[in-house]
User: Which sequence fits this backbone?
């Protein structure tokens, strides 16, 4: 398989898993407001409200645990990147900085979903 095809397939799988995660979160009462919010600094997979709390969701998928658990891929560098995009988002949408917010990870291992609330604090 060509490298371009592999990347396309990986992106398709990622998009499908983000949709799967969004549906899962909506069943839990989360109101999703953004999918794949992309800017130059990076991307946030899903953004929404869990009650009154603004939540930035990182979705990670692994077919199996051969290369580790999905949530392990949200390292300090990734957390910092997500935090920077979140600050951009707050400014872009003119959301007050005192709005309650958190960073969650939705880890999908095979078909098992783990929602990790408050997975990390904002890192700059």
Assistant:
């Amino acid at each position: 398989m060509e490298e371009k095809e592999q990347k396309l397939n990986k992106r398709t799988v990622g998009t499908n898993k983000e949709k799967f995660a969004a549906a899962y979160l909506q069943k839990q009462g989360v109101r999703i407001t953004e999918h794949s919010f992309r800017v130059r600094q990076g991307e946030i997979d899903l953004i929404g409200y869990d009650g009154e709390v603004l939540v930035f969701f990182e979705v990670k998928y692994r077919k199996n645990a051969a290369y580790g658990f999905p949530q392990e891929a949200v390292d300090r560098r990734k957390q910092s990147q997500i935090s920077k995009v979140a600050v951009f988002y707050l400014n872009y949408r003119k959301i007050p900085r005192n709005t309650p917010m958190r960073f969650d990870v939705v880890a999908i291992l095979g078909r098992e979903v783990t929602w990790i609330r408050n997975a990390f604090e904002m890192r700059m």
In short: DSSP finds two helices and five strands in the chain. The domain at 3-120 is CATH 3.40.1350.10 (Trna Endonuclease; Chain: A, domain 1). The mean pLDDT is 91.
